[in-house]
Amino acid sequence: MEIGMLSALVAPALAKELANSAMPHAPTRLPIAWWRLGRRLRRAMLPHPTPGRGGARPNLDQHRDHMSLSRNRITQYRRSPPMTLVRAAQAEVLDADPTSVITLMFDHEHTDGALTSNRTLLKDGNAGAPPHRHTRSGELFFILDGALEMLVGDELRILREGDALFVPPNTTHAFAPAPGHDADFLVVITPGKPRFDYYRLLDQVHNGEATWPEVNQTQDLYDNHYAESAVWTCRTTD
What we know:
CATH architecture of the largest domain: Sandwich
CATH topology of the largest domain: Jelly Rolls
Oligomer: single chain
Shape: elongated
Order of helices and strands: HHHEEEEEEEEEHHEH
Mean pLDDT: 81
Largest sheet: 10 strands, antiparallel
């Protein structure tokens, strides 16, 4: 509805109701005046009358159809993706390096982009993951067994069974099994980004089918950007 038409409708109604509100019982009538005005405005926002359906009578059927379509669109937008179940026997396991076993659980396409997840087992003495950061995702670590040494920013932490740690986006981090321990842990990256092919590429390196320079070339592709950390370097040389 054009502004001029809306003003022509509202002004007389408002003047009439405000004039009535000037009567002795004005404090009681004023809320009623605004309620009536609101009702007139709601009627004015209905679709225009359709010829052959009663002249000036609003096309209520068309209005109801429009509201029903809007509700259906909202319901469709809010509908959750279908459940995804990964059985232990079905999960892909990458074990070309026997000291680093990665079990692939969910990639981004399995969760409609909500998360990606894997289970990692690092044996004592494994070098772990060097300092790196993810610019578009955060990363959750949950320790299932053993102990994991982690760098977060410039701080070192030892995580043990039952501990959980969340690394925000753009935060340099690294991890390796704590000295004298294995580390079995769950990794969840959110929002989900393609990661399975990155882990498969690492597996190919250990199989001699790919090289570390090839891994370096995928930093933007997999949002896995390597960084420098004097804290982590000193920790590995002490």
